[in-house]
Amino acid sequence: MIYLDYAATTPVPQAVADAMYTVLTEQFGNPSSQYPIGLEMKRRVEEWRRIIADALGCAPKQLFFTSCGTEGDNWAITAACWQNRRIGRHIVTTAVEHSAVLEQCRWMERQGYEVTYLAPDRWGDITAEQVLAAVRPDTALVSVMLVNNELGNVYPIGDIARGLAAQGSQALLHTDAVQGFLKLPFTPASLGADLLTISAHKIGGPKGIGALYIGPRMKAPRPLLAGGGQESGLRSGTEATAQIAGFAKAVELRMEDLPGKLQHMAQIKAYAVERFSQIPDLEVLSHGAAPHILAVSLVGWPSQNIVNDLGSQGICISAGSACHQGRPSHVVASLHLPKRTASGVIRLSFGPETTRAEIDACAGALRRHHDQRLPML
Ligand code: PLP
Questions:
Q1: Which of 122, 126, 127, 165 is most enclosed, with most CB atoms within 10 A?
Q2: 319: exposed, middle or buried (C-beta count within 10 Å: 0-12, 13-18, 19+)?
Q3: What is the predicted pLDDT for the residue at 376?
């Protein structure tokens, strides 16, 4: 199998699986229990929290485990709107956010909020000026992702934060950094984000575990789950100890020569652009700075057919976001591309393990697909 869909999810290294297995079978204590295996697990959960917080560049007490990136995004939006409920009921976001943000914003609309969805330009870019121009005195929250999961564009979160401060806005700033964590150098403070979401399964960790950074301007964050008081009372529920162990192990592994890994991914992306550019009717859409995501269109060839054809040869790529399950992607739609270009959009995404030989094989399969199949009329 040739796996070129690292933005959808990533393989779990053996060392991560081993760390999780040990916790599941031997170190299975509940961190709330008062006897040694419980106390030991409590100590370990805090150690794992510190490893992840160090990699993100925040204090461990600012990092709260969630069940996934989707949960972190949902929580960030409701927590910020709750804190700023007296400021107003307006949210600024973009039309190219992940559904985890967009659907929660739509839910907020049903609760009486007004949401401004900013449109990107032809290349998928959103400017800080655009965001700041949409902010009003009653804006409670600005939520803009750090890296777009379909295009690889990097959005100017730091500039947005500085602009909000300069305007004297009381709006809180959330960024979905699920595709940015350990792909770009940043810290929540360097971005100026009040809330920031990450997820383990995009960096070699298990699915079903993420974290939300909650910064100092969040004075009294609204708890997500009430109950036994875990996660400093903000997200109750027995800690997913094995998932957290796997998350921390994945972070540790990823941090080993991280600059080398990022350089490798960027070189693979550049090589893929070079190879794919030789395929007739292929247009490169990505010009974003994320090292691991490349969007292209085989203009006139429907993307689902491409994905199926390559899939049958053991090559895994995606037709836009894996979360859309065959439906046209809202991100691609927002670019207003010509119909034949939009319908041919595929996403390739890379990991530290991706090789040039895999890119060559994918380019060959795309070329054959182009030469053998009839294009859409
Ligand atoms: N945000 C972005 C940008 C993503 O790419 C994803 C996953 O595809 C998510 C949020 C959701 O993360 P999770 O799958 O952990 O719920």
A1: 126
A2: buried
A3: 66
Nearest atom, ligand 1, residue 71 CA: 16
Total structural domains within the chain: 2
Can you name the residues that pair with 298 across neighbouring β-strands?
Answer: 282
For ligand 1, mutation pick of 6, 70, 105, 145 (most atoms within 8 Å of CB): 70
For position 190, which CATH number holds? 3.40.640.10
Closest atom, ligand 1, to C-alpha of 322: 8
Identify whether the C-beta of residue 211 lies closer than 8 Å to the C-beta of residue 50: no
Query: CA 297, CA 295: separation in Å to the nearest integer?
Result: 7
CA–centroid distance, 66 to ligand 1, in Å, is 12
CA-based nearest residue to 77, from 162, 7, 145: 145
What whole-number distance in Å separates Cα of residue 219 and Cα of residue 238? 25
Among this protein's residues, is 323 annotated catalytic? Answer: yes
Two tokens, residue 293: 């995501």
Active-site annotation holder among 68, 81, 323, 362: 323
CA distances from 228 to 214, 239, 245 (A): 20, 11, 21
Predicted confidence (pLDDT) per residue in 226-256, tens digit: 999 999 999 999 999 999 999 999 999 999 9
Cα-to-centroid distance, 278 and ligand 1 (Å)? 32
180, pLDDT greater than 50: yes
Collapse the DSSP code of 88 into the 3-class scheme (helix H, G, I; strand E, B; otherwise coil) and give the result.
Answer: coil
> Which one of 255, 279, 300 terminates a domain?
255
Rounded Cα distance between 265 and 183, Å, is 9
Q: Which domain holds residue 280?
A: 2-10+257-372
